[in-house]
Amino acid sequence: MNNSLCYTKSMYPDLFGISDFTMNVSVAIGVIAACGVIFLYLKKFSLKKNTYIDLAITFIVTLILAFVFAIVFENLYESIKNAKLDQPQQWTWSMTFYGGVIGGVLAFILMYKFFFLRLNNTIIDKLFVIVPGAISLGHAFGRLGCFFNGCCYGKETDKWFGILFPGFAHKVIPTQLFEMIFLFILAGILLFLAFKYDWKWTMPIYLISYALFRFIIEFYRGDERGQIGALSPSQYISIILFALGCIFLYQYIKGSSKEKTE
């Protein structure tokens, strides 16, 4: 290892005497930013005031259940890891993104169908355009929180981009920052296409691109997340999301071809 390199202390989970302050603030900023761009996008459609209120209620319930699922899935990951290491299972309040996505999608579908649509006309076509960019933006801030918290780090490395976290013996790949950069770029592209062109293809592009990136970056993760066979749980979920994105893409292409022939 090159000792001439400057090691950076980059893990600051607690500030102002508050435990996990930076992680929680980063997640909060991400949620506010994601919801903000959604409502900003919907403003140009001149929806009724009650529609915004009902949508806000839908989002609040969705977010609550998303956080619950994120915690449950993280404990599932921990149980897989602890079973492999023959260690007792201890409950953790940490969260995983894919768990939040699965729980959030299920919660939103139920709230949208049984609450929102009972009081409003459908706006699902508009949400499909803006939500992928909003999720990418919020997720990017969440990964910044992971960096400050010192979780989700990469494997040991001697490369120039390696970072030495406090308490670590060797530098590691800052996978959190790599994913954050990717997500900010993806969010910028998807939000530009949504606001500028109302581009309906944002959902399949998001699913395919993030699933591919997440599948690859998992090979460089150094934290123990549990393995199922040769892959991590997140990689299996990535495969499912990639397949779902391809299905969406096929349906969009099929629909566009049908419109041109009519």
Keywords for this entry:
single chain, 262 residues, mainly alpha, 7 helices, globular
Fold and architecture overview:
The chain is 67% helix and 0% strand. The chain has 262 residues and is mostly helical. The chain has two domains: 48-122, no CATH class; 124-262, no CATH class. Helix 2 packs antiparallel against helix 3 (97-119), helix 4 (124-149) runs antiparallel to helix 5 (175-197) and helix 6 packs antiparallel against helix 7. The model is unreliable at 1-10 (pLDDT under 50).
Mean pLDDT: 87
Strand content: under 5%
Number of domains: 2
Task: Count all strands and give the number.
Answer: 0
Estimate the global geometry from the Cα principal axes.
globular
- Distance from N terminus to C terminus (CA atoms, Å) equals 65 Å
In this structure, how is the largest beta sheet organized?
A: none
Spans where pLDDT lies below 50 across 5 or more residues: 1-10
Compressed to H and E, one letter per element, the order equals HHHHHHH
- Count of alpha/pi helices: 7
The amount of helix comes to 55-70%
The structure class reads mainly alpha
